[in-house]
Amino acid sequence: MLEIRDLECVRGDHRLFSGLNFSLQGGELLYLRGSNGSGKTSLLRTVCGLLEPTEGEVLWKGRNVRSQRDEFNAELTYLGHLNGVKGELTAFENLQLGGALSGLVVNEDDIYHALERIGLGGREDLPTQVLSQGQKRRVALARLLLSQASLWVLDEPFTALDVGAVDQLAKLIEAHLQKGGMAMFTTHQAVDIRAGAVREVDLDALDS
After folding, report:
1. How far separated are the first and last CA of the chain, in Å rounded?
2. What is the pLDDT of residue 207?
3. What count of other Cβ atoms lies within 10 Å of the Cβ of residue 164?
4. Euclidean distance between CA atoms 59 and 175, whole angstroms
5. Could you give the CA distance from residue 161 to residue 46 in angstroms, rounded to a whole number?
6. Could you tell me how far CA 37 lies from the centroid of its own chain?
7. What's the sign of the alpha-carbon dihedral 147, 171, 169, 65?
8. pLDDT tens-place values along the chain, 208 residues long
9. By the 8 A CB rule, do 53 and 9 touch?
């Protein structure tokens, strides 16, 4: 279980949010809402341990994530607002590298199958720098097909995707929830996800 306790985030002289509390369990989806500048990305990065909260703590299975970095990372897949792909590497090589950095042993057939499913069949061996923004986003999202993590933290995952890809990603999230996984994400788009218990946190509704 993921638990956020009395979290506060300050950037520069500006307090983005404070007194934030919520929890997330298997089979649950959390929509993170808020206007631009409300701290959505900062919150996601804090949950992942990439930013230090000003106050409060992030707990995973009852323990602070900073006290169990390796264990937590093994159960986390984070996709940031940027795609996080290396332009000089091919789509295949990016997934291969991502798996290695995550400590996963992923065979070549699984990588090719993931890229085929995500709509990049025939483009697996092209440098990602020649792909469109939507195709680069698909490379990043293909990591979800290879992920064995129980917690998915996704920052604007539907950005630059066409209607078909949005529907495909929604189904991937549904399948993850149905297997007992957890997901939290930000989005400005209306997305219909029909699995799991859906929760919502609106940063604009907090006293900052």
Report:
1. 26
2. 59
3. 9
4. 25
5. 26
6. 19
7. negative
8. 999 999 999 988 889 999 999 999 999 999 999 888 889 999 999 999 999 999 999 999 999 998 999 899 889 999 987 778 899 999 999 999 888 877 777 889 999 999 999 999 999 999 999 999 889 989 999 999 998 899 999 999 888 888 888 888 889 999 999 999 999 998 877 777 877 788 889 898 875 5
9. yes
- Residues 2 and 26: their CA atoms lie apart, in Å, by 9
pTM: 0.89
Q: CB of 114 within 8 A of CB of 39?
A: no
Confidence at residue 62, expressed as pLDDT on a 0 to 100 scale: 93
The β-bridge relationship of strands 197-202 and 182-186 is: unpaired
120 within 8 A of 138, measured Cβ to Cβ: yes
For 171, phi then psi, to 5°, come to -70, -35
Tell me the three state secondary structure of residue 207. Answer: coil
At 62, list the tokens. 């009852």
How far CA 135 is from CA of 83, 130, 199, in Å, comes to 10, 9, 30
Round to whole Å and give the CA distance between 39 and 17: 7
Are the C-beta atoms of residues 32 and 44 closer than 8 Å to each other? yes
Element (H, E) at 100: helix 91-101
**11 CB-near residues (< 8 Å, 6+ apart):** 39, 42
